[in-house]
Design goal:
With 235 residues, this protein is an alpha/beta fold. It has two domains: 10-68 and 161-234, Ribulose 1,5 Bisphosphate Carboxylase/Oxygenase; 75-158, Rossmann fold (3-Layer(aba) Sandwich), CATH 3.40.50. The chain has helices spanning 6-12, 23-33, 81-90, 98-105, 121-124, 128-131, 147-159, 183-199, 227-234, and strands at residues 41-48, 60-64, 75-78, 94-96, 113-117, 143-144, 161-165, 171-178, 210-217, 223-225. The strands form three sheets. It has a four-stranded antiparallel beta sheet. Strands 4-3-5-6 form a four-stranded parallel beta sheet. A hairpin with a 5-residue loop joins β9 and β10. The protein starts with 5 loop residues before the first helix and ends with a helix. The model has no long low-confidence stretch (mean pLDDT 92).
Length: 235
């Protein structure tokens, strides 16, 4: 049976494992428990009251964290002409047309996020098996139809736009920043994610929507947040 180390054990002493905390209290405890020798990532795990077997209850979308994630993503863009120029203006790391599609098909994957111009999506879709979840998709906000959309999409991704998506068990896993962020930054990022999730509630979902919310750092213990207060605060 595996055992936690001394650092983890010490970090859990001030935490009630079954207690439900206010969001700001939980985030404060996460920061307190993040004692690793590197800048730990702060994560949120939210179990939703949805039936993932039903297509009308899928939860997927994007939101911009006001203070970013603590990491500037490497953004690659498949576009040509005016949209390619807009991607460069927006700060894309790599921009290319058909030649970039061929490069990716050959195994190049040196990017965190891939964006595509809508008029090239038929060709880009052929990369589906190689890219799987990284394939540009309108629902994930990584397909742009106009130069204005392209520039805004790239700028938002660079500033902290994230995608959230319920997995096959109905849980959304997301990051909201780094342990080095101050309390206000993490709390505001958390609030932005929660607001997006609540707005994305499927009309077909019945009963309690936010079933449980846990916030943690990379090496720290999970701390539970009271979901009823989150719902009440957003409504």
């Amino acid at each position: 049976m595996s055992r936690h180390g001394k650092r983890y054990t010490a970090a859990t002493r001030a935490i009630g494992r079954e207690e439900l905390y206010e969001a700001d209290q939980a985030i404060a405890l996460v920061k307190q428990a993040a004692t690793a020798k590197f800048n730990e990532t702060v994560e949120v795990h939210c179990r939703l009251g949805i039936d993932v077997r039903k297509g009308d209850q899928m939860v997927r979308g994007t939101t911009v964290l006001p203070h970013g994630t603590g990491k500037t993503p490497n953004v690659a863009v498949i576009a040509a002409g005016e949209l390619a120029r807009a991607a460069e203006e927006g700060g894309a790391n790599t921009v290319g047309g058909v030649e970039l599609i061929e490069q990716i098909d050959g195994g190049w994957m040196e990017f965190d996020v891939l964006v595509a111009a809508q008029d090239l999506m038929r060709q880009v879709s052929k990369l589906g098996r190689k890219l799987t979840s990284r394939l540009p998709n309108a629902k994930s906000g990584t397909v742009a139809a106009t130069a204005e959309d392209m520039k805004r999409t790239v700028e938002q991704l660079k500033k902290g736009k994230i995608e959230y998506r319920a997995d096959k068990t109905g849980v959304v896993h997301s990051i909201i920043g780094k342990a080095s962020f101050d309390q206000t930054q993490l709390t505001e990022n958390f609030s932005s994610l929660m607001e997006a999730l609540v707005k994305a509630k499927p009309a077909a979902a019945k009963g309690h929507y936010l079933k449980s919310i846990t916030v943690t750092s990379t090496m720290g213990p999970g701390i539970k947040i009271d979901p009823t207060k989150i719902m009440a605060g957003i409504r």
